[in-house]
């Protein structure tokens, strides 16, 4: 079986790693296409090194740009790869522009398409990711859902064929790499951190970074929080802070420690040893849950409502008073269901479904 896997952003590298391992360990021919959506070392190359993912067979080098231009460039270049390789399956992951471009290229060439992390909905049509999810799911032949909620979301849209509840491949990755992180990461010592004596923050969504009042409000909340905060700052967030004239947050907020994006193993260590996580990242909301760390979501909604229902997550948007209050009062729930995201074998189930559906069979590469 020949599979082309399309990735482009750091969350996709994590989601793809255990699936890639399962495919290759089973003797299948996987061709890894990196669109170049994330391209600097800290956001891309370090993940391939740490996760043991083979170097991309093709790096399209698209880089940053407006959504239409970026997606269009990816679509043109991905189509060329698909025509040359004629795969049995195309695998796409998550909800980025790389996901949508890979999906559109596959469906227009009549190549069977599988979507890993299908069925997520924020119900916020202002998020470009929401359209990427919707369109990709409605293009896909196999839909690999991480939770029962995702299955229900698809059913409400009339999608029932090809839907598989497999669990979350990010949970597979956490189980595979947490022990390695404990042995090899020295990030806590390098930053002078003590277990459960700091908060971990990340921020990258346009809802927060592109709206000056939202970004200002979140930084104001950080100013009021008295505990040490490690702020892993996305390059785009740093750019927006400068663009909006918000100065150097670290000079104003004494408890704030700004760091550049770190590799996967270091991030796992920072997450599992934090007292609490503040983030607008979907992946980090889940990883907080996996590690039993309370999470405050800096968005007006979340796709991962299971983490809220279980008591491990709360949505506050950019309201600085709510952020400060929840940081003070948020505690782990007394008990909760711990198997919401599967049993850590999602990648094996995906492999099995691909193998048993190989005859789904539109002729690969035909127009």
Distance between the termini: 21 Å
Task: Tell the overall outline.
Answer: globular
What is the percent of helical residues? 40-55%
- The number of strands is 13
| Strand ordering within the main sheet | 3-2-1-4-5-6-7
CATH topology of the largest domain: Rossmann fold
Taking Cα atoms only, what radius of gyration do you get, to the nearest Å? 20 Å
At the first level of CATH, the class of the largest domain is: Alpha Beta
Largest beta-sheet characterization: 7 strands, parallel
- The number of distinct helices, counting runs of at least 4 residues, comes to 17
Explain the overall architecture.
The chain has two domains: 185 residues, Glycogen Phosphorylase B (Rossmann fold, 3-Layer(aba) Sandwich); 150 residues, Rossmann fold, CATH 3.40.50. Helices cover 47% and strands 15% of the residues. The protein has 367 residues and is an alpha/beta fold. The strands form two sheets. It has a seven-stranded parallel β-sheet, sandwiched between helices. A six-stranded parallel β-sheet has the order 10-9-8-11-12-13, sandwiched between helices. The protein starts with a strand and ends in an 11-residue tail after the last helix. Strand 1, helix 1 and strand 2 form a beta-alpha-beta unit.
């Amino acid at each position: 079986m020949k599979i082309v896997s399309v990735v482009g952003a750091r969350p996709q590298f994590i989601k793809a790693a255990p699936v890639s391992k399962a495919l290759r360990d089973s003797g299948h021919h996987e061709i890894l296409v990196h669109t170049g959506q994330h391209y600097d070392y800290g956001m891309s190359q370090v993940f391939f090194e740490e996760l043991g993912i083979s170097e991309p067979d093709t790096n399209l080098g698209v880089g940053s740009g407006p959504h239409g231009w970026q997606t269009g460039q990816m679509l043109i270049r991905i189509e060329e790869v698909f025509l040359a390789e004629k795969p049995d399956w195309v695998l796409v992951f998550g909800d980025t522009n790389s996901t949508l471009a890979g999906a559109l290229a596959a469906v227009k060439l009549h190549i069977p398409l599988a979507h890993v992390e299908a069925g997520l909905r924020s119900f916020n049509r202002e998020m470009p990711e929401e359209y990427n999810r919707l369109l990709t799911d409605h293009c896909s032949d196999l839909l690999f859902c991480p939770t029962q909620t995702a299955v229900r979301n698809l059913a409400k849209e009339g999608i029932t064929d090809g839907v598989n509840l497999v669990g979350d491949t990010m949970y597979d990755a956490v189980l595979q790499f947490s022990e390695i992180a404990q042995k090899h990461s020295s990030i806590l010592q390098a930053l002078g951190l003590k277990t459960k004596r700091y908060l971990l923050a990340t921020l990258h969504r346009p809802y927060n970074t592109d709206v000056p009042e939202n970004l200002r409000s979140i930084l104001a909340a950080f100013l009021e929080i008295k505990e040490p905060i490690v702020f892993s700052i996305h390059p785009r967030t740093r750019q927006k802070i400068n663009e909006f004239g918000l100065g150097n947050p670290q000079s104003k907020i004494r408890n704030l420690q700004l760091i550049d994006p770190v590799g996967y193993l270091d991030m796992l260590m920072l997450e599992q040893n934090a007292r609490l996580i503040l983030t607008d990242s979907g992946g980090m909301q889940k990883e907080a849950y996996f590690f039993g760390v309370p999470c405050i979501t800096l968005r007006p909604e979340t796709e991962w409502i299971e983490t809220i229902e279980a008591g491990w997550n709360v949505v506050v948007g950019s309201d600085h008073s709510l952020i400060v209050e929840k940081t003070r009062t948020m505690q782990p729930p007394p008990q909760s269901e711990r198997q919401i995201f599967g049993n850590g074998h999602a990648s094996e189930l995906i492999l099995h479904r691909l193998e048993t559906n190989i005859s789904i069979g539109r002729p690969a590469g035909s127009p």
